[in-house]
Specification:
The chain has 278 residues and is an alpha/beta fold. Helices cover 50% and strands 16% of the residues. The chain is built from 9 helices and 7 strands. Strand 2, helix 6 (145-157) and strand 3 form a beta-alpha-beta unit. The protein is elongated. It binds S-adenosylmethionine (SAM) and calcium ion. S-adenosylmethionine binds next to helix 5 and strand 2.
Length: 278
Protein backbone atom coordinates (compact mmCIF):
# COMPACT_ATOMS: atom_id res chain seq x y z
CA UNK A 1 0.00 0.00 0.00
CA UNK A 2 2.74 2.38 0.90
CA UNK A 3 4.59 2.47 -2.45
CA UNK A 4 1.30 3.02 -4.38
CA UNK A 5 0.26 5.84 -2.08
CA UNK A 6 3.69 7.37 -2.42
CA UNK A 7 3.51 7.04 -6.21
CA UNK A 8 0.09 8.76 -6.22
CA UNK A 9 1.37 11.55 -3.99
CA UNK A 10 4.43 12.09 -6.22
CA UNK A 11 2.19 12.22 -9.32
CA UNK A 12 -0.03 14.81 -7.60
CA UNK A 13 2.94 16.98 -6.58
CA UNK A 14 4.31 16.73 -10.12
CA UNK A 15 0.93 17.81 -11.57
CA UNK A 16 0.69 20.76 -9.15
CA UNK A 17 4.23 21.90 -9.98
CA UNK A 18 3.49 21.66 -13.71
CA UNK A 19 0.32 23.75 -13.30
CA UNK A 20 2.26 26.30 -11.24
CA UNK A 21 5.00 26.54 -13.89
CA UNK A 22 2.36 26.99 -16.60
CA UNK A 23 0.63 29.75 -14.59
CA UNK A 24 3.95 31.52 -14.02
CA UNK A 25 4.80 31.34 -17.70
CA UNK A 26 1.42 32.76 -18.71
CA UNK A 27 1.69 35.63 -16.23
CA UNK A 28 5.23 36.40 -17.49
CA UNK A 29 4.09 36.49 -21.09
CA UNK A 30 1.14 38.71 -20.13
CA UNK A 31 3.38 41.03 -18.13
CA UNK A 32 5.79 41.31 -21.05
CA UNK A 33 2.98 42.11 -23.46
CA UNK A 34 1.50 44.73 -21.13
CA UNK A 35 4.89 46.30 -20.50
CA UNK A 36 5.57 46.47 -24.20
CA UNK A 37 2.22 48.18 -24.74
CA UNK A 38 2.91 50.58 -21.89
CA UNK A 39 6.40 51.34 -23.14
CA UNK A 40 5.11 51.86 -26.66
CA UNK A 41 2.40 54.22 -25.49
CA UNK A 42 4.85 56.03 -23.21
CA UNK A 43 7.34 56.47 -26.01
CA UNK A 44 4.89 57.17 -28.79
CA UNK A 45 2.23 59.33 -27.26
CA UNK A 46 2.36 62.88 -26.01
CA UNK A 47 2.66 62.76 -22.26
CA UNK A 48 3.34 66.30 -21.25
CA UNK A 49 1.97 69.78 -21.49
CA UNK A 50 3.96 71.68 -24.05
CA UNK A 51 3.81 69.21 -26.88
CA UNK A 52 2.74 71.24 -29.76
CA UNK A 53 0.45 68.79 -31.36
CA UNK A 54 -2.49 66.59 -30.51
CA UNK A 55 -1.42 64.00 -33.05
CA UNK A 56 -1.18 60.30 -32.18
CA UNK A 57 2.58 60.24 -31.91
CA UNK A 58 5.64 62.44 -31.62
CA UNK A 59 7.09 60.65 -34.63
CA UNK A 60 4.20 61.72 -36.83
CA UNK A 61 4.47 65.30 -35.60
CA UNK A 62 8.24 65.31 -36.20
CA UNK A 63 7.55 64.03 -39.70
CA UNK A 64 5.31 67.04 -40.41
CA UNK A 65 7.85 69.46 -38.99
CA UNK A 66 10.83 67.96 -40.78
CA UNK A 67 9.11 67.29 -44.09
CA UNK A 68 7.02 70.36 -44.68
CA UNK A 69 7.50 72.97 -41.98
CA UNK A 70 11.19 73.47 -41.17
CA UNK A 71 12.40 73.27 -44.79
CA UNK A 72 9.99 76.08 -45.75
CA UNK A 73 10.26 78.19 -42.58
CA UNK A 74 11.39 81.73 -43.40
CA UNK A 75 14.86 82.46 -41.98
CA UNK A 76 13.66 85.16 -39.52
CA UNK A 77 11.02 82.83 -38.11
CA UNK A 78 13.65 80.13 -37.61
CA UNK A 79 15.88 82.66 -35.85
CA UNK A 80 13.03 83.80 -33.61
CA UNK A 81 12.01 80.22 -32.86
CA UNK A 82 15.57 79.33 -31.85
CA UNK A 83 15.92 82.46 -29.75
CA UNK A 84 12.61 81.77 -28.01
CA UNK A 85 13.58 78.16 -27.32
CA UNK A 86 16.22 79.49 -24.88
CA UNK A 87 13.64 81.52 -22.94
CA UNK A 88 12.29 80.00 -19.70
CA UNK A 89 8.65 80.43 -20.78
CA UNK A 90 9.14 78.92 -24.24
CA UNK A 91 6.16 76.65 -23.63
CA UNK A 92 4.00 79.62 -24.58
CA UNK A 93 5.32 80.11 -28.08
CA UNK A 94 3.28 79.31 -31.17
CA UNK A 95 4.57 76.13 -32.79
CA UNK A 96 6.26 76.23 -36.19
CA UNK A 97 3.46 74.29 -37.90
CA UNK A 98 0.85 76.67 -36.52
CA UNK A 99 2.99 79.62 -37.61
CA UNK A 100 3.06 78.18 -41.12
CA UNK A 101 -0.71 77.67 -41.01
CA UNK A 102 -1.39 81.26 -39.88
CA UNK A 103 0.93 82.64 -42.54
CA UNK A 104 -0.90 80.71 -45.27
CA UNK A 105 -4.34 81.58 -43.87
CA UNK A 106 -3.62 85.30 -43.80
CA UNK A 107 -2.46 85.22 -47.40
CA UNK A 108 -5.53 83.23 -48.45
CA UNK A 109 -7.92 85.80 -46.99
CA UNK A 110 -5.82 88.78 -48.16
CA UNK A 111 -5.69 90.10 -44.61
CA UNK A 112 -4.46 93.66 -44.26
CA UNK A 113 -5.78 95.12 -41.03
CA UNK A 114 -5.11 92.63 -38.22
CA UNK A 115 -4.92 92.34 -34.46
CA UNK A 116 -3.10 90.02 -32.07
CA UNK A 117 -3.84 89.59 -28.38
CA UNK A 118 -0.93 87.80 -26.67
CA UNK A 119 2.43 88.38 -28.34
CA UNK A 120 5.10 86.83 -26.05
CA UNK A 121 8.32 86.92 -28.15
CA UNK A 122 6.40 87.39 -31.37
CA UNK A 123 6.46 84.14 -33.37
CA UNK A 124 2.79 84.34 -34.50
CA UNK A 125 3.23 88.11 -34.84
CA UNK A 126 6.11 87.60 -37.25
CA UNK A 127 4.14 84.93 -39.15
CA UNK A 128 1.40 87.56 -39.54
CA UNK A 129 3.74 90.45 -40.36
CA UNK A 130 5.40 88.42 -43.11
CA UNK A 131 2.03 87.44 -44.61
CA UNK A 132 0.28 90.81 -44.86
CA UNK A 133 1.15 93.44 -47.48
CA UNK A 134 3.73 96.17 -46.87
CA UNK A 135 1.02 98.66 -45.86
CA UNK A 136 -0.75 96.08 -43.69
CA UNK A 137 -1.19 96.66 -39.95
CA UNK A 138 -1.10 94.59 -36.76
CA UNK A 139 -2.40 96.01 -33.54
CA UNK A 140 -0.46 93.83 -31.10
CA UNK A 141 -1.18 93.73 -27.38
CA UNK A 142 0.58 92.15 -24.46
CA UNK A 143 0.95 92.92 -20.78
CA UNK A 144 4.63 92.12 -21.11
CA UNK A 145 6.79 94.37 -23.28
CA UNK A 146 10.08 92.74 -22.26
CA UNK A 147 9.35 89.50 -24.10
CA UNK A 148 8.18 91.37 -27.18
CA UNK A 149 11.43 93.33 -27.16
CA UNK A 150 13.41 90.11 -26.99
CA UNK A 151 12.13 89.13 -30.42
CA UNK A 152 11.87 92.64 -31.84
CA UNK A 153 15.41 92.80 -33.32
CA UNK A 154 14.62 89.74 -35.44
CA UNK A 155 11.33 91.32 -36.58
CA UNK A 156 13.17 94.54 -37.41
CA UNK A 157 15.85 92.67 -39.34
CA UNK A 158 13.07 90.97 -41.33
CA UNK A 159 11.92 94.44 -42.41
CA UNK A 160 8.35 94.12 -41.12
CA UNK A 161 8.41 96.01 -37.79
CA UNK A 162 6.75 99.07 -39.38
CA UNK A 163 3.51 97.07 -39.70
CA UNK A 164 3.28 96.56 -35.94
CA UNK A 165 1.64 98.87 -33.44
CA UNK A 166 2.51 97.32 -30.07
CA UNK A 167 0.47 98.29 -27.03
CA UNK A 168 1.72 97.25 -23.63
CA UNK A 169 -0.98 96.42 -21.12
CA UNK A 170 -4.17 94.40 -20.75
CA UNK A 171 -6.08 94.04 -23.99
CA UNK A 172 -9.61 94.48 -22.68
CA UNK A 173 -9.51 98.28 -22.05
CA UNK A 174 -7.94 98.78 -25.50
CA UNK A 175 -10.79 96.81 -27.07
CA UNK A 176 -13.35 98.86 -25.14
CA UNK A 177 -11.76 102.02 -26.47
CA UNK A 178 -11.82 100.67 -30.01
CA UNK A 179 -15.48 99.63 -29.73
CA UNK A 180 -16.41 103.13 -28.53
CA UNK A 181 -15.43 104.55 -31.89
CA UNK A 182 -17.86 103.44 -34.60
CA UNK A 183 -15.25 103.76 -37.31
CA UNK A 184 -13.42 100.75 -35.91
CA UNK A 185 -16.48 98.55 -36.24
CA UNK A 186 -16.03 95.86 -38.87
CA UNK A 187 -12.54 97.14 -39.64
CA UNK A 188 -10.38 94.08 -38.92
CA UNK A 189 -9.76 91.32 -41.45
CA UNK A 190 -8.11 88.96 -38.98
CA UNK A 191 -7.74 88.78 -35.19
CA UNK A 192 -5.60 86.21 -33.40
CA UNK A 193 -6.37 85.66 -29.71
CA UNK A 194 -3.65 83.87 -27.76
CA UNK A 195 -3.65 85.33 -24.25
CA UNK A 196 -5.51 84.93 -20.94
CA UNK A 197 -8.06 82.17 -21.57
CA UNK A 198 -10.35 83.36 -18.76
CA UNK A 199 -10.99 86.50 -20.80
CA UNK A 200 -11.70 84.93 -24.19
CA UNK A 201 -15.46 85.34 -23.86
CA UNK A 202 -15.00 88.99 -22.83
CA UNK A 203 -12.78 89.47 -25.87
CA UNK A 204 -15.32 87.77 -28.09
CA UNK A 205 -18.06 90.22 -27.06
CA UNK A 206 -15.90 93.10 -28.31
CA UNK A 207 -14.11 91.42 -31.20
CA UNK A 208 -17.31 90.41 -32.91
CA UNK A 209 -17.99 94.14 -33.37
CA UNK A 210 -14.48 94.90 -34.56
CA UNK A 211 -13.98 92.12 -37.10
CA UNK A 212 -15.57 92.71 -40.49
CA UNK A 213 -18.38 90.52 -41.80
CA UNK A 214 -16.50 87.80 -43.67
CA UNK A 215 -13.42 88.37 -41.50
CA UNK A 216 -11.84 85.85 -39.13
CA UNK A 217 -11.14 85.59 -35.43
CA UNK A 218 -8.80 82.76 -34.43
CA UNK A 219 -9.01 81.61 -30.81
CA UNK A 220 -5.93 79.65 -29.87
CA UNK A 221 -5.55 76.70 -27.47
CA UNK A 222 -9.18 75.65 -27.67
CA UNK A 223 -8.29 72.00 -27.04
CA UNK A 224 -6.21 73.07 -24.03
CA UNK A 225 -3.69 70.25 -24.10
CA UNK A 226 -6.48 67.73 -24.58
CA UNK A 227 -7.79 68.55 -21.10
CA UNK A 228 -11.24 69.42 -22.49
CA UNK A 229 -11.96 65.69 -22.50
CA UNK A 230 -10.02 64.73 -19.35
CA UNK A 231 -12.04 62.93 -16.65
CA UNK A 232 -12.75 65.04 -13.52
CA UNK A 233 -10.11 63.19 -11.46
CA UNK A 234 -7.37 63.37 -14.12
CA UNK A 235 -3.99 64.56 -12.75
CA UNK A 236 -3.81 67.92 -14.53
CA UNK A 237 -1.34 70.67 -13.88
CA UNK A 238 -2.83 73.45 -11.78
CA UNK A 239 -2.97 76.06 -14.53
CA UNK A 240 -4.33 73.54 -17.05
CA UNK A 241 -7.12 72.65 -14.64
CA UNK A 242 -7.83 76.30 -13.83
CA UNK A 243 -8.25 77.48 -17.42
CA UNK A 244 -9.92 74.32 -18.68
CA UNK A 245 -13.43 75.38 -17.63
CA UNK A 246 -13.03 78.75 -19.34
CA UNK A 247 -11.89 77.09 -22.56
CA UNK A 248 -14.79 74.65 -22.44
CA UNK A 249 -17.24 77.47 -21.78
CA UNK A 250 -15.82 79.38 -24.75
CA UNK A 251 -16.10 76.33 -27.01
CA UNK A 252 -19.75 75.88 -26.05
CA UNK A 253 -20.55 79.56 -26.58
CA UNK A 254 -18.84 79.69 -29.99
CA UNK A 255 -20.68 76.57 -31.10
CA UNK A 256 -24.07 78.27 -30.67
CA UNK A 257 -23.19 81.83 -31.69
CA UNK A 258 -25.31 82.63 -34.76
CA UNK A 259 -23.08 85.58 -35.74
CA UNK A 260 -20.24 83.27 -36.75
CA UNK A 261 -19.40 80.12 -38.64
CA UNK A 262 -16.77 78.07 -36.88
CA UNK A 263 -14.11 75.50 -37.58
CA UNK A 264 -12.09 73.92 -34.81
CA UNK A 265 -8.74 72.65 -36.05
CA UNK A 266 -6.38 70.30 -34.20
CA UNK A 267 -3.38 72.41 -35.20
CA UNK A 268 -1.01 73.23 -32.35
CA UNK A 269 -3.11 73.11 -29.21
CA UNK A 270 -6.32 73.59 -31.16
CA UNK A 271 -7.38 76.73 -32.94
CA UNK A 272 -11.00 77.72 -33.52
CA UNK A 273 -11.57 79.88 -36.55
CA UNK A 274 -14.66 82.05 -36.40
CA UNK A 275 -15.91 83.70 -39.57
CA UNK A 276 -18.27 86.56 -38.88
CA UNK A 277 -21.41 86.20 -40.92
CA UNK A 278 -23.59 88.96 -39.42
N1 LIG B 1 1.19 84.36 -29.65
C1 LIG B 1 2.39 84.22 -28.89
C2 LIG B 1 3.48 83.52 -29.70
O1 LIG B 1 3.30 83.25 -30.87
O2 LIG B 1 4.53 83.26 -29.13
C3 LIG B 1 2.17 83.47 -27.60
C4 LIG B 1 1.34 84.22 -26.59
S1 LIG B 1 1.44 83.56 -24.99
C5 LIG B 1 0.67 82.04 -25.12
C6 LIG B 1 0.28 84.49 -24.06
C7 LIG B 1 0.64 85.96 -23.88
O3 LIG B 1 -0.51 86.64 -23.42
C8 LIG B 1 1.72 86.21 -22.86
O4 LIG B 1 2.81 86.86 -23.47
C9 LIG B 1 1.06 87.10 -21.81
O5 LIG B 1 1.92 88.13 -21.33
C10 LIG B 1 -0.09 87.70 -22.60
N2 LIG B 1 -1.22 88.15 -21.79
C11 LIG B 1 -1.73 87.58 -20.67
N3 LIG B 1 -2.78 88.27 -20.22
C12 LIG B 1 -2.96 89.31 -21.09
C13 LIG B 1 -3.89 90.38 -21.16
N4 LIG B 1 -4.85 90.53 -20.25
N5 LIG B 1 -3.77 91.26 -22.18
C14 LIG B 1 -2.79 91.11 -23.11
N6 LIG B 1 -1.89 90.13 -23.08
C15 LIG B 1 -1.96 89.24 -22.08
CA1 LIG C 1 -1.17 79.55 -28.07
Amino acid sequence: RFPIQRKLKLAQVHKQRKAKRKKLLISRVLAMATNTQDQQSQAGRHQEVGHKSLLQSDALYQYILETSVYPREPEPMKELRELTAKHPWNLMTTSADEGQFLNMLLKLINAKNTMEIGVYTGYSLLATALAIPDDGKILAMDVNRENYELGLPVIQKAGVAHKIDFKEGPALPVLDQLVEDEKNHGSFDFIFVDADKDNYLNYHKRLIELVKVGGLIGYDNTLWNGSVVAPPDAPLRKYVRYYRDFVMELNKALAVDPRIEICMLPVGDGITLCRRVK
